[in-house]
Amino acid sequence: MNTEACDSCPAHVQMAKMGVDIANCDHVVALAGNPNTGKSSVFNALTGLRQHVGNWTGKTVTRAEGAFGYGGKRYKLVDLPGTYSLLSASHDEEISRNFLLFGQPDCTVVVVDATALERNLNLVLQVLEITDRAVVCVNLMDEAKRKGIEVDVRSLSRDLGVPAVSTVARTKEGLSDLVASVAGVACGETKTSPSRVAPPAEVQEAIDGLVPLIQGMAPGLPSARWVALRLLDGDHKVREALLSGELAGLADRQRQAAPLAASRIKAIAGAQ
Asked: Is the N or the C terminus of the chain less surrounded, counting Cβ atoms within 10 Å?
């Protein structure tokens, strides 16, 4: 998501609606996680003093934004509200869900507590239903060690199909590896293949029936399967977004922006 001179692209349009200014950055990274996972410590360690605090548009929920650089690129980091799920049962969940679905960040970092990994994986799996571009930050590894808990991060990464990085954000241990993984996913160098929980046969049959209908109403929507799951779960906000054409508009802007972005990248490369 190179946002220079691209005020009409989906990144600008959708994130502007959410009150997020992504001017002067090359990639947008979302930071998600359960409460008490050390997510704020990860945010502070990555951004230092380059932070901005405000409220989400139309909400009294605090939003923190920051920035960091890596490999000559500029990254805008958006700290999503701490939440246990993306089922939009609260303002926090709705904000996080909408940002991932409509904002389509270049990478989503999900911070998990190494001492309570099983509980935290619920949110990870929900995020992976929405986006392929994710990195799991296994934080509080020092606490896990003190409790005699061993976390096989390599196996976790293999099983989830996305990079997993162990960190101790308080001491900045593992942060350089985390940034490198984020950069790899954001720029497309790291290919991911997220594992998704297979639903019961009857639910899968319903999903298979809904996905073509959703794709017909919103051609090119990258998260048709997730939308189908939410519809089956009775998510009225997703239903409204589909029926009102909001999802179709998102998909249409994404299609229109793709050739424009490609031509600009080609022009920039030719000028260098």
From this structure: C
